[in-house]
Amino acid sequence: MERKQFGLGDVVQMKKPHPCGTNAWKVIRMGMDIRIKCTGCDHSVMLPRLEFERKLKKILSHGEEQE
Question: Per the structure, how many domains does the chain have?
Answer without folding.
Answer: 1
